[in-house]
Design the sequence.
């Protein structure tokens, strides 16, 4: 699994700086604590069949020549000539590599000069070493995704301030067994990229740190309202990517989400949000790349301000009324390339007298209206369900657009 581009922005400049120093590493000795920690890594991990990552980890080489190890002079004692491990990458990350198995040793926390720790997907299990944050105060990037790791906690306390003052990128996605709640210290951290998706995290979401730019908590079991998460005078102005889909968040949909000035992708599908969508006036011209609020219990009309989205998913809700002309024009102009609104209670779509662009996917099936043309169902996914209109008795119900629970 390749690291996200934003992570590479952190890693590549660091490696460029370390290159000349790494070349000199062979002539100097590695700190004894780092040597012992690497020995524990080798004892605790093994190649899965088909992986040959550890082939170079033998006693005939300097540890600084091991695959995935980058060494640099000890900044705390540069005159000593002693080297410290500054970057540790475990696994190759190649598509045809099955990765590693085993457990992470507690002695990883003794690599005091480490700035980047990456474990590529495999079958490494057990707990994340509890002192990995407090012991690695220079750590800027921690990526342990795609394994079978467990806590302690959704985010080990040692990885947050004041224990871990340098950490900016935290990726613990796709482990499944990481559970517990996100601690309140998360709000005062200096993290800007956090991916905890597809785990077993519970509880509510505390206010976001003002530095955050990328946040994915998709596929967990989090719950509660999002009131106060995005506001209270410390709105994350640089947040560009937000994915809270496939959780159990509930209550009204927070208008502050649409007011995030840098937001490009807003993914909040498959939760239990109810009530109407409200887009603040200041956000009316935000050029979102994608807005996905599908599979909730959202009622009311489609806000005309969402015509600015490149892709808009409001399907499988309880929305009613006519689709705004601004949204219809955006679809037929080709500015909005996907508009999914099936399985609602919509009563009209003011389609202009223009052909639908071939690049556009439009789905309006199973609403309280006749489809304006066959093209209004041509873009429907194969799992969208019936393509006919919703039964008239459902559309006559005065509570059709206001009762709780999503449709379909």
Sequence:
């Amino acid at each position: 699994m390749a690291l996200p581009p934003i992570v590479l922005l952190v890693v590549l400049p660091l490696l460029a700086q370390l290159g000349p120093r790494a070349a000199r590493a062979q002539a100097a000795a590695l700190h004894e604590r780092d040597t012992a920690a690497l020995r524990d890594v080798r004892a605790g991990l093994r190649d899965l069949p088909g992986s040959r990552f550890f082939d170079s980890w033998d006693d005939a080489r300097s540890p600084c020549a091991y695959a995935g190890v980058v060494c640099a002079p000890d900044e705390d004692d540069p005159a000593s000539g002693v080297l410290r491990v500054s970057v540790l990458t475990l696994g190759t990350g190649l598509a045809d590599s099955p990765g590693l198995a085993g457990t992470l040793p507690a002695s990883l926390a003794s690599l005091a000069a480490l700035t980047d720790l990456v474990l590529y997907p495999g079958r490494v299990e057990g707990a994340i070493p509890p002192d990995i944050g407090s012991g690695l105060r220079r750590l800027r990037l921690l990526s342990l995704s795609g394994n079978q790791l467990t806590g302690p906690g959704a985010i080990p306390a040692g990885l947050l301030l004041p224990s871990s003052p340098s950490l900016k990128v935290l990726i613990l996605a796709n482990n499944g067994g990481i559970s517990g709640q996100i601690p309140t210290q998360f709000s005062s951290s200096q993290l800007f990229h956090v991916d905890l998706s597809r785990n077993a995290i519970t509880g509510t979401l505390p206010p976001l740190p003002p530095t955050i730019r990328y946040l994915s908590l998709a596929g967990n079991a989090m719950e509660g309202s999002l009131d106060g998460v995005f506001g209270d005078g410390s709105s994350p102005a640089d947040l560009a990517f937000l994915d809270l889909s496939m959780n159990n968040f509930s209550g009204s949909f927070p208008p502050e989400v649409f007011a995030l000035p840098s937001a490009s992708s807003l993914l909040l599908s498959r939760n239990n949000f109810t009530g109407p969508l409200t887009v603040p006036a200041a956000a009316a011209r935000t050029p979102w790349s994608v807005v996905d609020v599908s599979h909730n219990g959202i009622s009311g009309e489609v806000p005309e301000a969402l015509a600015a989205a490149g892709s808009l998913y409001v399907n499988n809700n309880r929305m009613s009324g006519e689709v705004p002309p601004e949204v219809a024009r955006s679809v037929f102009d080709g500015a909005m390339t996907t508009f999914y609104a099936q399985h609602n209670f919509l009563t009209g779509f003011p389609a202009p007298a223009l052909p639908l662009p071939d690049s556009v996917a439009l789905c309006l099936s199973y609403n309280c209206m006749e489809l304006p043309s066959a093209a209004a169902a041509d873009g429907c996914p194969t799992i969208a369900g019936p393509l006919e209109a919703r039964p008239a008795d459902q559309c006559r119900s005065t509570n059709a657009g206001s009762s709780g629970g999503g449709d379909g």
The mean pLDDT is 89. The first strand starts at residue 45 and ends at 47.
